[in-house]
Records
---
Amino acid sequence: MAELALKRGAKVYLHAFLDGRDTPPKSAQPSLEKLDALFAQYPNQGRITSMIGRYYAMDRDNRWDRVEQAYRLLTEGEAIRTAATAVEGLAAAYAADESDEFVKATRIGEIAKIQDGDSVVFMNFRADRARELTKAEITQEVDEAKTEVKQEINEKKNIINRKKEQKCLIYDVVFSNIFCIFVY
């Protein structure tokens, strides 16, 4: 998906959600290296901008205390650690005894946060894993008692696809500027 977008001239800011549960606990490095090599073929067109473990980003049981860390990373650039490259950030996480699933919010390079006008593609094998983070980003149904995050959402967002599979709502949304991909 990232390669197709890059070939078509889109800017791609990739926020990586690391697995470590359905894959070996410390297996993200080859994927990050492959993505870095892809971005190197398209200078100034995109990069890996952040990473976080699925424990934080892929919750589906309304544990906002976890999801908030991913939400703030994506919308404010707020991170526990920063690194020059994704591989350096992953090495720091491993040195802190974090496996892929539990990698804390890590910003890679300069802040590249989701803003009004951005296009967002959230890719995952199971649709229900995107439920809580997507709901917070798209509908702003974040319990204000739990967080002070107030992300203003552009009124012109066009919801193009609403899926009710697995008894959850997932939205695909069209914006207008930057093409963002969420993967793990």
---
Amino acid sequence: MGGLHFDISHHLIQRAGATVDTDLNLPYGIRLLFGGELFYESLSNDVTEFDASPSPLTQLPLYCPVDPSGAPLPHCPRQFDNDASRGVGAVYLSAQWRPLQKLTFDGGVRIQKGFGPRPYDLTPLYSGAIVWNFLPDFHLKANYTTGFRPPAFQSTESSLGGLNYGGKPNLKTETSQSFQGEVNARLLRNVRKVRELELRIDYSYTFLDRLITIHQGSYGNTGKRAIHSVEGYAKLYLNGDHFLQASYTYLYGTQSDSGVQRNVPNHWFSLGASFNVIKHIGKNKRGFGDVAFDVNTNFRSTSSARTAPMTSACRPRPARRRRRGRPTSRSIGCRRWRCCSSGSGCAFCASGSPLTGSSTTCSTSTTSTRTSSTTSRRRRRCRRRRRRGSTSSRRSRTIRSVA
């Protein structure tokens, strides 16, 4: 058959290791879990060979290796990633304390380091959480966690001249910090045909540093990224093994090197349902014994929307409420504009000129048709009208006081 044929049977990706841990139950409701792990991971023989159809010499978008005489090697063997390996060691400690029956504290620490040909620095990790059953069937949860991700071999060991993105051996590990707060409840238990109603609302904030992305054809550590997320979730369990569920998620992210993150939607809507059509097929039937089957029909729909903020453009500032005897800036034609730029705050400009780049100062760019002299005349005219308005308001107050 036609198409591109290649062989990757020589690739070998392996990981092996061992973990040792133990737990202790101490007085006052304290539990400890501590241990360590050691593992080895490697990538080798990442060579791809191409068959003769299509011809690797004329129809492949890459150069094929040659022998000492300059003749191309059969099947055009290309190494996409160089061989790499490392050993990883880590120790960890986790503790749980329940001072009250409805209050639980959790905390932990982990230290991990990579050794060998492709090592990474010693990285400490921390976590903490609290769960409080403040009302019957109501729980409050909060947790803080740090994390990291070492560079993958594909991003550090890409060989030159292949079909892969360029690798950088000196990549740093990604680090993250996250906070999450949640309130959940379980209501309407065994009320008529309702088995239970599960409700949840939570907020999370995630901060990423030294994120590894592809920039200009090669891997590299970029700037910082901050992500805010709010979620509302509801799931209704009905008698007969049916359930309905709905959720909404708001997501907003910014990056230090590119401003507002626009590659993901801000709003996510999801609806789902599951109905048990036939229950316990084959139960107590000949040939099935105690084995039973259920037939369910499931439905799920997800939609998303993006509400991109206005950037690098001016929009009129809402007019203030008009006071008696005192004209506002909108009523006398002195219109102020608010200019916003991606990744920065907003500034109020006297003219309609947009911000330049990511600065927060107003500019007199070519997008504005007003000249500086025209703008100055309009400002003077606005000030005169304001003075006239303030004088008339004082006169009206004086007449009312005399009357």
---
Amino acid sequence: MGFRMRLFCLLLFLNPALLSAEVVKEYDEGGRLKFESNLKGGKLNGFAREYNNLGVLIWEGHYKDDELEGTAKGFYSSGKLQWVMRYKRDRLNGKAKGFYESGPLWWEMSYREGKPHGRSRAYYEDGKLWKEMNFKDGKLDGIVLEFDGKNLKQKSLYRRGAKAGL
């Protein structure tokens, strides 16, 4: 017996609940796969994927006890990556990034406990900075800069979500 098979048998011996996992699939009226996920103990656990009406993957993520946990990705109907976000206990947590369908970075934002928190930036499709802002507990807080592709176009100051000057 090979190493992988021995490891698999050991894991089953230590955790027989692994056998109770099942893959659930949902299909549309035309018989095309719409959604698939692992189900353990009646809850979403493990991978999950959603497809559009053409069968193209448009979303994938991981669940733990019915809550999003870890990295989730969204895709354009072309199949290209649209965004990447991190979740912790079903709430956005950590870096999130969005991309133009042509590939370049469109925006990047940090989240804490489901709310924007920290520096965020948005870019023109050519990669030049468009906007830069800071969030604190989900509210704009600090200087917001907007560029026209080359030069600073506008500068604003926000405190706890309200415009404060500049």
